[in-house]
Design a protein that fits this description.
This protein has about 400 residues and is mainly alpha-helical. Helices cover about 65% and strands about 0% of the residues.
C-alpha cells in the first residue's frame, strides 16, 4: 500500500512510523518543518520526528524510551579508538615476531660464522702441520738421515738419490740472488739433475728472506722449481734504477769470455727493460732518451726527476723546467754548471765540478783549473771595482 502523508498526519503513531521507509520519513519531517541533514541515517531522522511530535504533545513522552537509540559521537569515537588500539596491538605483535625472527637469524649466522672460523683454523693448523712435517723430512733428507725414496716424504724420486747431490748445490747469496740461480741452473744442466728434483735440491741452501718465502709456499708450489724461483726473485726484486746501474756498470771479468760477458750484459739490459715494462720500440726509445736527458742535467734536478718517476721525455723536460723555475736554478741561455763555481774552497779557491763544459762521461775538454778560475774571478772583481770608481769620480768633484 502506498504511503499516505495526510493519513499519517491525521493519526500519527510510533508503529506506523517504524513501518515507513527513509524517503517516507523524510517527507514527514519536511511536512513538520524539521531540520535535518540529508546524509543522516533513517534512525536519526526518525528520532528527530518523534522528538518533534512529543514536543508538540501529539505523542506521549514514553515513546522516546522505546525508540531506537542513535549512536552518539562518543560511541563512534570509542569504537574507532578500540579499532586503532587493536590494530596497534597487532602491529606490536608483528614487530615482536619480526624481532624474534631477526634474533634467531643473527644467532644462526653467528653460529655459522663461528663454525666457519673454527674449520678455517683447523685447516690452517693442518696445513702448518703438514708444512712443518714436510720441511722436517726435507731437512732429514739433506742430512742423509732418510732416503729420498721414503714414501713418507711424498716424493717420487724415480731412483734419483737427492742426498748425494745436495752437497753440490751452490751457497745461497742474498746480495746476488740472480747469480745463485744462474749458477744452480748451470750445475743442474751439467750434472744432469732431473728438473723435477731441482726444488728439493735448491731449498736446502735457502737463508733469510728466501727461506721465509719458501716456507710460506704450499706443498704443491714448493715442488715446482719455476714457482719457487719466481717467488724468491719477487721477494728480492730490485728497483729499475738498480737494474739500470747493473747494466751500465757491469764490466768484463778477467775470467770471463766475451761471449759470457755479452750474455750477462744482455740479461742486465733485459731485466732493466722488464722493470720499466718496455715492450715496444717507442717505450724503448723513451727509456733511452730519458736516461740520456738525466745524464746531462744537474744532480739536484736529476734527483727530482727520479723522485717523480716520469718515463716520457716531454714529462721529464717539463718537470725539469718547473724545478728550475721554482728553485731559480739558472736562466735560459746560461750553462747548467754556472752555479758550480760560486762557492770558494779554502784549499783551491773554488769547489764543485772542475770543468765548465765537462759532461757526465768524464771528458775533460775545455776544463778550467780551480786555481786559475779563482784568480780570474779576483781579477774580474778588481776590474769591476776600478770601473765603478772611475765612473763615480766626476760626480764627487
Amino acid at each position: 500500500m502506498p504511503f499516505n502523508l495526510d493519513k499519517f498526519v491525521a493519526s500519527p503513531s510510533v508503529e506506523e512510523l517504524d513501518s515507513l521507509k527513509k524517503s517516507e520519513i523524510v517527507k514527514v519531517a519536511k511536512h513538520y518543518g524539521i531540520e535535518f541533514q540529508p546524509l543522516m541515517r533513517k534512525d536519526e531522522i526518525k528520532r528527530y520526528v518523534l522528538e518533534y511530535l512529543v514536543d508538540e504533545s501529539i505523542l506521549p513522552s514514553t515513546v522516546l524510551e522505546t525508540a531506537i537509540t542513535v549512536p552518539t559521537d562518543n560511541t563512534f569515537e570509542l569504537k574507532r579508538l578500540e579499532i586503532e588500539m587493536n590494530k596497534e596491538i597487532r602491529l606490536k605483535e608483528m614487530e615482536r615476531e619480526r624481532e624474534r625472527e631477526e634474533r634467531e637469524r643473527e644467532r644462526k649466522e653467528r653460529e655459522m660464522q663461528m663454525q666457519k672460523e673454527k674449520e678455517e683454523r683447523e685447516m690452517q693448523m693442518q696445513r702448518e702441520k703438514e708444512a712443518r712435517e714436510h720441511e722436517f723430512r726435507l731437512k732429514q733428507l739433506e742430512l742423509g738421515v732418510i732416503k729420498a725414496s721414503d714414501p713418507k716424504i711424498g716424493l717420487d724420486t724415480g731412483g734419483f738419490d737427492v742426498s748425494k747431490h745436495v752437497k753440490f748445490v751452490p751457497k745461497f747469496q742474498e746480495d746476488n740472488v740472480e747469480k745463485f740461480f744462474n749458477h744452480f741452473e748451470k750445475l743442474g744442466e751439467q750434472l744432469k739433475w732431473p728438473r723435477d728434483k731441482w726444488s728439493i735440491l735448491i731449498q736446502s741452501n735457502f737463508t733469510g728472506k728466501a727461506q721465509e718465502v719458501y716456507s710460506a709456499l704450499s706443498i704443491e708450489d714448493s715442488m715446482d722449481y719455476d714457482k719457487v724461483k719466481k717467488a724468491i726473485l719477487q721477494a728480492y726484486e730490485l728497483v729499475p734504477e738498480a737494474y739500470r746501474q747493473k747494466f751500465r756498470k757491469y764490466r768484463k771479468a778477467d775470467t770471463q769470455t766475451y761471449v759470457e760477458f755479452a750474455y750477462q750484459k744482455e740479461r742486465h739490459f733485459d731485466r732493466w727493460c722488464a722493470s720499466k715494462k718496455v715492450s715496444t720500440f717507442d717505450t724503448l726509445r723513451q727509456l733511452m732518451l730519458v736516461e740520456e736527458f738525466k745524464r746531462c742535467v744537474n744532480d739536484d734536478i736529476k734527483t727530482h726527476l727520479e723522485e717523480n718517476k716520469a718515463d716520457k721525455l716531454k714529462e721529464v723536460a717539463n718537470l725539469a723546467d718547473q724545478y728550475a723555475l721554482t728553485h731559480k736554478f739558472g736562466k735560459v741561455g746560461q750553462t747548467q754548471n754556472k752555479g758550480q763555481f760560486s762557492r770558494p774552497n779554502k784549499k783551491y779557491g773554488n769547489s764543485g765540478n772542475n770543468s765548465g763544459t765537462t759532461s757526465n762521461s768524464g771528458s775533460q775538454s775545455g776544463s778550467i783549473s780551480p786555481t786559475n778560475s779563482g784568480k780570474n774571478n779576483q781579477i774580474r772583481v778588481v776590474k769591476r771595482t776600478t770601473r765603478s770608481a772611475q765612473t763615480k769620480l766626476p760626480l764627487k768633484t
